[in-house]
Amino acid sequence: MKKIFLETYGCQMNEYDSELVRSILKKENYEFVTDEFKADIVMLNTCAIREHAHRKVYGRVHNIRHARGKDSPVMIGILGCMATNLRQELFEDKSLKIDFIAGPDSYKRLPHLIHEASDEGQKSYDVTLSEFETYSDVYPSRTEGGVNAWIAVMRGCNNFCTFCVVPYTRGRERSRSPENVVDEVRRLAAEGFKQVTLLGQNVNSYHYDNYDFAYLMDEVSKVEGIERIRFTSPHPKDYPDHFLDLMAANPKICKHIHLPLQAGNNRILDMMNRGYTHEEFLSLVDKIRTKIPDVALSTDIIVGFPTETNDEFEDTIRVVTKAQFDIAFTFKYSERQGTVASKKYPDEISEAIKTERIMHLHATQKEITYQKNLAHIGKTLTVLLEPYPEAKNKDQMPGRTDGNALVILPLGPYKGGDMVKVRIIAATPHALKGLPV
Ligand code: SF4
Q1: From CA 402, how far away is CA 326, in angstroms rounded?
Q2: What's the gap in Å between 369 CA and the centre of ligand 1?
């Protein structure tokens, strides 16, 4: 049996894809090992979202080649978005000695690609983007004993935000049938998972025949044993009233919405091809809060998009201050080869200015998050406990509120997967502290 060491970079979609890859290759009698030095094949499931991600993978491949020695027969395969973004270019750098490449839609061909590369010693690759592949017939090989399971319900993205490589590395949107998704959820409930997170690059644009995302969420919520349902990553353009009404009424659907803003200035939003203005974004925030009063909101923001002036950046600060997000994931603009922005807008904002802006944004958001966390003190919240091994500090137990806030409580007669009522006694900008009631 050939031994494989698989390492995953990037987003949850890649984590899910690695579970698919494990399932596909285990069926072909490959064994997955956790010690890379015992592996005959090392596969890196890569991310292309920022230049840093690329550099990390190049460095990793060099390390593996160096550590295993120049005569080592170990094979290296590149999977994921870097495979479809750079394609055969990855073979050109002879020092990397990449043996095979497979894009996110080609994982069913991995046994063939590995065979071609190992037995015939040729550089094998498949980076075809499929309009149909959803791996609906592959049940992911997940780690045992988890509490939350990720489920990719759709793949690809049609939005073409000008800074993003995803439409080029993962192709056009296609969704799995609701029955196929609900079948997977039933199996997960039978395996003891308490929460499922529905995944997609633009998950709330899910549609299959006449079924939309609201229908899918409602069907998933009918599965016995599943206590909580989350979803990521959505786009602000796909929040119809009937979906928000379902979220407000259905106790299993967590009252947490990720709402990527990306920038606060309309000229920049237009250059990003986000399809909304900051006024429209803020009125969506108001509508969501009216329909789901206790909802928690998180967001993604890019600073330093080409030609963004200081005043235009201040618009981002103004929107963040008005929107009062519970948490924000912030990034410096990173030019991505092949995107519309890389062709049209030179990346001339200096690293120093990008750093200055992201520090300013961090400080603004940190204070908002802290105030939001302080407001939970004295409340009793229901917390879904995470698997204990993940606890950094061994005499504490981590869990998540419905709003996805991290809660730390003392060890006690409960375990990962338990839903515990917790009275919040303290807060920091990063987490809540609580005692079971
Ligand atoms: S919606 Fe998200 S995944 Fe799609 S192009 Fe925009 S940023 Fe990329």
Answers
A1: 13
A2: 25
